[in-house]
């Protein structure tokens, strides 16, 4: 019942008030049943007082049940909202290097699991009322005849155990289906992002659905049909046992005369009122299995739902990393980072790397495909924590406590960058002052506008998107700029603007620039050119020969 714990944690007092209101409404409903019973037994239904009492209790029932349901609905919605926000925040706060391997899974959590939990949580108000009604009815049954209640409970427990039997194996099937869901979302990703390729290639397209998507959905269908049908079979048998049991109780009463006819009628009337809420409760039990599995997935992705107060990012980064002109802006000492390729039994190792980057220096990094340039860029800007050695910023070691502030020094345009429409983090005054000038310089002024700190479009050509990303990085105005092959594939005209105007401009403003590039003809724009080969940084005296070799 983790979901109840979530509701309670969300607001203990609202939960308690809701529980009390639901309890009163359940008791009031039982009182209504009691009065109906009494009215059948005696002639007092005609009495005015009784009618007023009856209406009064009905009013209590209606108001308290609406109030209780309102509170539980409110709490449920708060839990759903909290869950969405907490998970989004945790994803943003989690270590990038851990999450980058499970993006498909995260996507399934954000869409599938959260929807599963939400769709079940909204049923809770009705379940809450059903539980309190059943409790009150049980109390009333004991009041009418504890002996009959004991018999009823024996029958009920037998039916319940039968109903409960297949739930664990159903849970296992749900768990398998949910694991398939992660894989399926990966295939859907291929379907969406590979739409061009699939549309062009007829054979691959038909095989993609037939041999990739269909077998998995077939498996899911099998598990769902078998699991659900088994639950239905057992619950119908549970109902049969309940009805046969009640029939059996009637027989026992008749044969043994254990109680009077009147008591039996009263007891049966309450039983009839109890069966509807009872079946509502039992029908929701498989849903709790689904919630537990969804919560398990969230948990195992390292995204528990505990709210945490994140340490606020110190606004003034210079307090955390005071500028020490004599120290390099970034220094890597024996830094190493490896990827483990479990399926290949070998891994790529970057480093150990020793590198000093001075403030205001323009550094170009070159190297063949797979030599580790992007990996070094990620270590450099704090996305990957070094597995060996240390990174320092103005002489101060970068550690988990200050890494957020360290990353905040950078503006990075990755080779596979994502362009957000929203630029809400850039002050309007900066946009007013500088955006138009840069839009013109990058020849984007006829394509894109910035309205209310939002780009009017990002549906642009690859080159235009790169130019737009550059414009945004300019507006962000960070101390260190890192470009991963920004100029690759651009027109010579924009390359020239980039190397001959923008980079010198950044340097003149005291910015440190680190660019991964293959544009040999612009190497004179750099203060330093460094080269990676199979994860190792080449000694400077070897660089000249290697450059000749690299470009020939
Ligand atoms: N997320 C990752 N998980 C596992 N291995 C990775 C990952 N990213 C890169 N690698 C491996 O690390 C090595 C270096 O990759 P990296 O992207 O740093 O090279 P690169 O020099 O930037 O290459 P390119 O010029 O092709 O972009 C490659 O062998 C690659 O297979």
Automatic annotation (TrEMBL):
<keyword id="KW-0547">Nucleotide-binding</keyword>
<dbReference type="Pfam" id="PF00005">
    <property type="entry name" value="ABC_tran"/>
</dbReference>
<dbReference type="InterPro" id="IPR036640">
    <property type="entry name" value="ABC1_TM_sf"/>
</dbReference>
<dbReference type="InterPro" id="IPR003593">
    <property type="entry name" value="AAA+_ATPase"/>
</dbReference>
<feature type="transmembrane region" description="Helical">
    <location>
        <begin position="51"/>
        <end position="75"/>
    </location>
</feature>
<feature type="transmembrane region" description="Helical">
    <location>
        <begin position="12"/>
        <end position="36"/>
    </location>
</feature>
<dbReference type="InterPro" id="IPR003439">
    <property type="entry name" value="ABC_transporter-like_ATP-bd"/>
</dbReference>
<dbReference type="Pfam" id="PF00664">
    <property type="entry name" value="ABC_membrane"/>
</dbReference>
<keyword id="KW-1133">Transmembrane helix</keyword>
<keyword id="KW-0067">ATP-binding</keyword>
<feature type="domain" description="ABC transmembrane type-1">
    <location>
        <begin position="17"/>
        <end position="290"/>
    </location>
</feature>
<dbReference type="InterPro" id="IPR039421">
    <property type="entry name" value="Type_1_exporter"/>
</dbReference>
<keyword id="KW-0812">Transmembrane</keyword>
<keyword id="KW-0813">Transport</keyword>
<dbReference type="InterPro" id="IPR005898">
    <property type="entry name" value="Cyc_pep_transpt_SyrD/YojI"/>
</dbReference>
<dbReference type="InterPro" id="IPR027417">
    <property type="entry name" value="P-loop_NTPase"/>
</dbReference>
<keyword id="KW-0472">Membrane</keyword>
<feature type="domain" description="ABC transporter">
    <location>
        <begin position="330"/>
        <end position="551"/>
    </location>
</feature>
<protein>
    <submittedName>
        <fullName>Cyclic peptide export ABC transporter</fullName>
    </submittedName>
</protein>
<feature type="transmembrane region" description="Helical">
    <location>
        <begin position="124"/>
        <end position="143"/>
    </location>
</feature>
<dbReference type="InterPro" id="IPR011527">
    <property type="entry name" value="ABC1_TM_dom"/>
</dbReference>
<dbReference type="InterPro" id="IPR015856">
    <property type="entry name" value="ABC_transpr_CbiO/EcfA_su"/>
</dbReference>
<feature type="transmembrane region" description="Helical">
    <location>
        <begin position="149"/>
        <end position="167"/>
    </location>
</feature>
């Amino acid at each position: 019942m983790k979901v109840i714990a979530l509701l309670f944690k969300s607001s203990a007092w609202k939960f308690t008030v809701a529980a009390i209101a639901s309890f009163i409404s359940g008791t009031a409903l039982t009182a209504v049943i009691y009065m109906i019973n009494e009215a059948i037994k005696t002639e007092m239904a005609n009495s005015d007082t009784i009618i007023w009492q009856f209406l009064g209790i009905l009013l209590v029932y209606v108001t308290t049940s609406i109030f209780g349901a309102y509170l539980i609905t409110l709490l449920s919605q708060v839990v759903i909202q909290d869950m969405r926000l907490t998970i989004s925040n945790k994803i943003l706060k989690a270590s990038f290097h851990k999450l980058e391997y499970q993006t498909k899974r995260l996507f399934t959590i954000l869409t599938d699991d959260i929807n599963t939990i939400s769709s079940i949580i909204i049923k809770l108000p009705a379940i809450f009322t059903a539980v309190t009604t059943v409790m009150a009815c049980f109390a009333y049954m004991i009041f009418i005849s504890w002996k009959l209640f004991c018999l009823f409970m024996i029958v009920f427990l037998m039916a319940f155990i039968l109903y409960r039997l297949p739930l664990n194996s159903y849970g296992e099937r749900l768990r398998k289906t949910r694991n398939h869901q992660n894989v399926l979302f990966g295939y859907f990703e291929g379907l969406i992002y590979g739409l061009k390729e699939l549309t062009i290639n007829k054979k691959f397209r038909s095989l993609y659905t037939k041999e990739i998507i269909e077998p998995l959905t077939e498996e899911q269908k099998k598990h769902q049909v078998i699991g659900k049908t088994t639950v239905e079979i057992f619950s119908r048998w549970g109902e049969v046992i309940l009805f046969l049991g009640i029939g059996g109780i009637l027989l026992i009463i008749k044969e043994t005369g254990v109680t009077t006819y009147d008591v039996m009628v009263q007891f049966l009337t309450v039983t009839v009122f109890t069966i509807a809420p009872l079946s509502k409760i039992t029908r929701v039990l498989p849903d709790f299995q689904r919630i537990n599995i969804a919560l398990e997935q969230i948990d195992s992705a390292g995204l528990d739902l505990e709210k945490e107060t994140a340490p606020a990012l110190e606004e003034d980064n210079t307090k955390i990393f005071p500028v020490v002109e004599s120290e390099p802006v970034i220094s890597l000492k024996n830094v190493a980072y490896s990827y483990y390729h479990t399926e290949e039994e070998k891994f790529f190792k970057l480093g150990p790397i020793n590198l000093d980057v001075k403030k205001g220096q323009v550094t170009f990094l070159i190297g063949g495909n797979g030599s580790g340039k992007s990996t070094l860029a990620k270590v450099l800007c704090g996305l990957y924590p070094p597995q060996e050695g240390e990174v320092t910023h103005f002489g101060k070691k970068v550690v988990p406590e200050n890494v957020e502030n360290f990353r905040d020094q950078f503006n990075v345009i990755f080779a596979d960058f994502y362009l957000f429409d929203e630029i809400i983090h850039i002050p309007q005054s900066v946009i007013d002052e500088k955006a138009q000038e840069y839009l013109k310089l990058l020849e984007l002024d006829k394509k894109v506008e910035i309205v209310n700190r939002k780009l009017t479009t990002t549906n642009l050509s690859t080159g235009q998107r790169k130019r737009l990303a550059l414009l945004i990085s300019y507006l962000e105005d960070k101390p260190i700029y890192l470009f991963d092959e920004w100029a690759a594939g651009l027109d010579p005209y924009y390359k020239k603007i980039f190397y001959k105007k923008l980079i010198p401009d950044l340097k003149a403003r005291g910015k440190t620039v680190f660019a991964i590039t293959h544009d040999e003809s612009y190497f004179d724009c750099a203060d330093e050119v460094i080269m990676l080969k199979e994860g190792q940084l080449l000694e400077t005296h070897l660089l000249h020969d290697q450059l000749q070799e690299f470009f020939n």
